Each structure stands twice: as C-alpha cells, then as structure tokens.
Amino acid sequence: MFSKCWWYWHVCAFKISLVLLVIVVAVGEVGCFWWAFFTWRVPDNSSDSLNLLLISDSHILGYKYECPGMCGYITRLDSDWYLKKAFSLALTSFSPDAVIHLGDIFDEGSIGTDYQFVEYKTRHDNIFNTPDGISRIHVAGDNDIGGEWSDSMTEQKVSRFSRHFGSINDVIKLKTFQIVKINSVSLLRGRPFKAERTTYNKTLDFIEKLPSKLDKDKISILIGHLPVTDISERQAVPLRKLINAVQPRYAFSGHLHYPATLQHKIGSVTFTEYVVPTCSYRMGTNMIGAAIAVLGVDGSIQYSALPLPRRYPFFGAYLVTLCICLVLGLPWLMSLMIFIVRLLRNRLTGRKCCLLILKLKECGK
C-alpha cells in the first residue's frame, strides 16, 4: 500500500513539475516579450512626421569570444533569436520611415575575417528583417571598424563595412528632414594611429564640405555611434565645425549601453542628444531596449524607450525548474527503466524457452 502511494505521489509530482517547466519556458520565450510589448508607450505619428526606430549596440555574436563547439552555437542562436523577437515586436508596434542602427552592430566585426563578416551580415539581415519601403541607415561603431583601445580603424575595415552598409559619413534626406551620419569613432582618439589617418582625414574633409551638402530649409538630425561627451577634448575644433555646419535640432547615439538624455550647448548651437541603450542582453546591463522618435514638421519630438525583458533571470528559472523535474522524476524514471529491462529480459528468456522446446521436439522425432 505504501509503495503504491509513494509511486503515485512521484508520478503526480513529476507531471506537475513538467507542466511548470513548460509554463516557465513559455513565459521566458514568449510571454515576457508580449508583457513588455503591452507596456510600451508608442507615440502617435502622422504622414508628415519623420518616424524613426532606433536600434543600438546589437553586438551580434562572433566566434573568438564565444565558447567553441555546440556551446557557442547555442549562445549565438539564443542571442540572435532574442534580437529577432524584439525587433519583430518593435515593427509590430510602430511603422517607421527609417530604421537606424547606431553602431556596434557586430560584437567581433572589426576583428573578424572577410568570410566571417559576410556571415555576420547574413545573420544581421535575418534578425533585422526590414520590409521594403523602410529606409535602413547603419552607423559604424568601434566593434564594427575598430578605433577604440588597441584596435586600429584601418582602411580595409572601413571599406568592408561601407560595401555592406553604405558610406560611414553621409547625408540622408527624408521628408522635410536631413540626417547627417558621422563616423564619430574617428574623433574618439586625441591622436589617431598611423593606420587610421586616412579615414580620419576623410571624416575631417566630410565635415569641411558639409555646408554645401545641406539644405537650409530642412531640419537637421545628427547621428553617430559616440555621444558628443565621449569625443576627445583634442577633437574640439572638428566637433565645433561639425555642430556649426549641421545646426542639429536633435542627435542620436549609442555606445554607452544604457539610456541617457543629454543637453548640449556648443558655440551658439543648443540641442538635445538621446543615447539609445543596447538591445542585447549579453552586454551586462539590465537597461536593455530600443527607442522610437517621432519628429514633427514644427521641430517637435516625441521620444519613447522600448524596454526589453531581461534574459538571465529566466535562464536561472529554467535551470531550477529542470532540476526539480529531474529530482522528482528520478525515482519514476528509474522504475520505468527497471520495468523496461525486466520486460526485455522476460521476452529474451521466453524466446530461449521456445527455442529449447523446439529442439526437444526435434530430438523426440
């Protein structure tokens, strides 16, 4: 009687733990994203406004800094899947005129081979699958082309990025607005490395020629990977020339991995800069997300963050629930294995007996 109760309790507990595991996984893989979706405050837009979806520091994972083999494959797959779900929901909630990637698109773009870079680009296109009719604007980050610490920003890296994502310095005109894309990574160092001087000089030349490229009747928006405050003090002169030429109403940047709103006054120009947080859960911050900006023809702005769910707490919940399933299901699984072994043994014994009887009958004949 006791053994039957014990067996029944373990079977029920194992079934309950399996149901719990399914619920936890469903919440972690789907439910938490929809919960975040319903908390987003999406501003109203119109056909005249410029509607921007801002993505920063996606850090699509590479190979060098990930575990080798199957472990690395799983971590890359999970990170890509997280980014894909987040971007898909963002497009569901908002219809942008342009999607702007504010740099550090790849985690190992600067140090990857040409073959790996093409693979990263393919994964990027799959993750950030943007419908036709929506402009795609990509800013170069230090993880994409180098330029930070000892990682040199070479012409080869810049050329490779430009082939896949367009010029690193550009003016894009949309509706009554003009977006000035600047390679702000060139202005990160006080003195660029020798290998970086060509790219640095091209950025300075772009700044010098900006006045002839801009339309005075359009509202100017400045975008770059680095916030203005992260640009080297030794680059104050190029920065001042850039701001005076662009006369930005607003600026958007990334790099910091956390959100911030910065007020700037450079010379006679006053503007607001919005720093967009990372959208990757791998960056060690709890403030993960994207952002939306709706710019009115009168120069007004409605800016809204799109917080994304944390990932690591759910990994912990998966592990705890799985351990509970294993502990509660172990006696039942052991009993099941014993039953299967006995069944197979009995069948094998039965076959041997049948063969023995047949042999005896043959001998009797």
Automatic annotation (TrEMBL):
It comes from the Eukaryota. Signal peptide: none annotated. GO terms for molecular function: hydrolase activity. It comes from Desmophyllum pertusum. GO terms for biological process: GPI anchor biosynthetic process. It is a multi-pass membrane protein. Keywords: Membrane, Transmembrane, Transmembrane helix. Pfam families: Metallophos. GO terms for cellular component: endoplasmic reticulum; membrane. This is Calcineurin-like phosphoesterase domain-containing protein. Its main location: membrane. It is found in: Membrane.
